[in-house]
Amino acid sequence: MSADAMPLPFDPLVDLHGIWTTELAELYLPIPGAPRVKYECLDGYLVMSPYEGSPNGFGMLRLALLIDEQAMRAGNRIYPTVNVEFSPQRWIQPDLTVLKQPIEDLTWIPADLVLMPVEFVSASSRRRDRINKPAECAQAGIPYFMRVEFSKPQAVKVELLELAGDGYKPLATALSGQRFETDVPFPMSFDPAQLLEAWYT
Length: 201
What we know:
Blueprint: H1 12-15, H2 22-28, E1 37-42, E2 45-50, H3 54-73, E3 77-79, E4 83-87, E5 90-92, E6 96-99, E7 108-110, E8 114-120, H4 126-139, E9 144-152, E10 155-164, E11 167-175, E12 180-182, E13 188-190
Parallel strand pairs: 4-7, 8-9
Antiparallel strand pairs: 1-2, 3-6, 4-5, 6-8, 9-10, 10-11, 12-13
């Protein structure tokens, strides 16, 4: 066989394009040798996005610490990045995920166990964080969706959305320097500025 006729080596990003499932993800993800990224899937098409910069990463940690106690009291549980599954060919990895109840040793979290995904909007996935993911979560009947967005080093907005019909409506919003207050899905009260790196310097 000539060199020109040699078969190409298997490449999951090429050979599985458009046919990804949770089963294939367990076999081939993460991609060996590739940079660490988040792997999400939209109808069989893999979506890869880099991990967040320090403002988002710091904000995720601070938010989890700020709301964890009240979430636990309500019987809920907060997790960092997990796989929220809508179907075998569609899943997302929210930055934080509040579940309705404790779980144990699950790789794929059914959407009906999710109380509130939390997305920190990033430049690499702004449209997905603002539009696509809320639409997917609303379609799955997830009751709440929280979005956090940094507009500059010392400015941040926190917005809580509540499911109404087939979409979300704003329930509570606050900017840094204001008070974010809500009693649902569990009591939360904090200044969004507490999510900023500069708050602690």
